[in-house]
Design a protein that fits this description.
- This protein is α+β, with helices and mostly antiparallel strands.
- Helix content is 57%, strand content 16%.
- The chain folds into 2 domains: 71 residues, no CATH class; 40 residues, no CATH class.
- The chain is extended, with a radius of gyration of 21 Å.
- It binds zinc ion (ZN).
Length: 127
């Protein structure tokens, strides 16, 4: 049993391993696969298999720099969605199209021009 553990440890050395993005992709893929068994939809089956393959590819990848960058972008996206959901009644939250900074404006102010405090990019938003 110890030998198998050592083999696995050596095999995973220098590889990305599981991260948040791989876990979410894997769960969605498993859900698609199970749904395909119930609905007999070949598209869902293919999506499930492709998702599982992508999650495995992420775990086994040796290009840790790029996988980490993708995972960070995914985590940033998730936290922005969470913030939008939590403050959906009072604020409209969006990312600056030029620099990506998160901008929050009060709701129900009509059409307003918003200037990004970081890069100065101006954009029109309906609130
Ligand atoms: Zn900006």
């Amino acid at each position: 049993m110890k030998k198998i553990g050592n083999f696995f440890r050596n095999f995973m050395q220098g590889r990305n391993g599981t991260d948040d993005l791989a876990k979410v992709v894997l769960w969605i893929a498993i859900a698609c696969y199970l749904l395909s068994l119930l609905t007999k939809q070949p598209g869902l089956y293919m999506l499930g298999i492709a998702g599982i393959a992508y999650a495995l590819y992420r775990c086994m990848s040796k290009d840790i720099m790029n996988r980490s960058a993708e995972n960070r972008r995914f985590q940033k996206f998730l936290s922005l969605q969470k913030l939008k959901w939590e403050q959906r009644k009072d604020y409209k939250i969006f990312a600056c199209k030029r620099c990506g900074r998160t901008i929050r404006v009060p709701k129900k102010k009509g059409k307003i021009e918003v200037t990004c405090p970081t890069c100065g990019h101006k954009s029109i938003h309906r609130t």
